[in-house]
Design brief:
Layout lengths: L1 E9 L2 E7 L8 H9 L8 E7 L5 E8 L4 E3 L3 H13 L2 H4 L8 E8 L2 E10 L2 E8 L1 H10 L1 E6 L2 E6 L2 E5 H7 L12 H17 L4 E8 L8 E9 L14 H13 L9 E8 L13 E9 L2 E9 L3 E9 L4
Helix pairs in contact: 2-7
Length: about 325
């Protein structure tokens, strides 16, 4: 089976984009998991992009490696889509007008309508802003649940457990949870995620976001994605990877805990990804900017951008029949 693809990453979170319709719908999930797994090794997520009913609409279905199933939203994938629509043949497929300085597209996802705004400069996507208002509403619809698992306080937001590293340190003094290499720190977090997996009733995996308020660069907080699955696919990445959906989920959690770094009804948070001390990164300190608007203490509007988004490959993928 031959399908057109674009592969890219946002700060080490690698995704593969496909055109809907080239694989029969009943086989899309099976094909996505083949692309995620070795020997194809297509990244952590796969997205199927199809034409919407209106101009500028793209239907997006996403599968990921941790739960090995469909997910409602992947923020990082939307960032890669921004570059793919401007810099690859995917833009022609969707008949997009790329002549202006800004392109606006609506992604139709299971979490709602997610607009993306792409700044174009010299035929390149300079920056993509993902508008996550619908996803924030989706999080509140799913319910925000305080949890105490393995003696550690956390907050469930959508499919994430959000944990302040200070809560882990209170439970396990002297352990450096900013590291992602093998060791006691990762064993403790994976055990917590396994407990969260059982709490959620997930048969395959669990996803978490750790954070602290000890920035090393221009940020206000640092973020540490921790995704657990039997194959430890996400843990095999040697560097901290950027997670857009997790960025918004942490923003919702900070609002819930009254930890937002602004007192007005709107503001901006700059997040750093991981610790350069614990996990030196070839890109240096990578950041994400999250813009929030609050209403009655809840996040009513949210948008974000990642500092590192790159395309890796474009072509035809020959899916093995195994």
């Amino acid at each position: 089976m031959n399908v057109h693809f674009v592969k890219g990453h946002c700060g080490w979170d690698t995704v593969t984009l496909l055109l809907a319709g080239e694989i029969p719908p009943q086989h899309e999930l099976e094909a996505a998991l083949k692309i995620i797994d070795i020997p194809v090794s297509g990244g952590l997520e796969v997205g199927f992009m199809g034409r919407g009913e209106r101009e500028g609409e793209i239907r997006l279905r996403m599968a990921e490696s941790t739960t090995r199933n469909w997910i409602a939203m992947c923020g990082g994938m939307s960032q890669v889509i921004g570059k793919a629509l401007v810099e690859t043949g995917f833009g022609d497929h969707f008949n997009l007008n790329l002549s202006g300085p800004k392109l606006r597209v609506k992604l139709l996802t299971d979490s709602g309508v997610i607009p993306i705004e792409i700044d174009i400069e010299h035929a390149k996507a300079r920056q993509t802003t993902t508008v996550m208002d619908a996803y924030a509403a989706f999080c509140y619809k799913c319910g925000i649940e305080p949890l105490v698992l393995d003696g550690v306080r956390g907050l469930q937001v959508d499919r994430f457990i959000i944990v302040d590293i200070a809560a882990l340190e209170n439970r396990h003094p002297g352990v450096d949870f900013t590291r992602r290499d093998p060791g006691q720190h990762l064993e403790i977090v994976n055990a917590l995620l396994r407990t969260f997996q059982r709490h959620c009733g997930s048969p395959t995996g669990a996803v978490g976001m750790l954070y602290d308020d000890r920035p090393e660069g221009p940020g206000r907080f640092r973020l540490y994605p921790r995704f657990f699955s039997a194959d430890l696919a996400a843990a095999k990445i040697p560097y901290e990877f950027q997670c857009g959906t997790g960025t918004v989920a942490v923003g919702v959690a900070l609002a819930h805990h009254n930890q937002l770094p602004f007192k007005e009804q709107q503001g901006r948070i700059v997040f750093e990804w991981g610790s350069q001390r614990a996990t030196p990164d070839p890109y240096g300190i990578r950041t994400s900017q999250l813009n929030l608007v609050l209403q009655d203490g809840l996040v009513s509007k949210a948008s974000f951008t990642h500092s590192v988004v790159e395309l890796l490959a474009e072509g035809t993928l020959h899916l093995p029949q195994y």
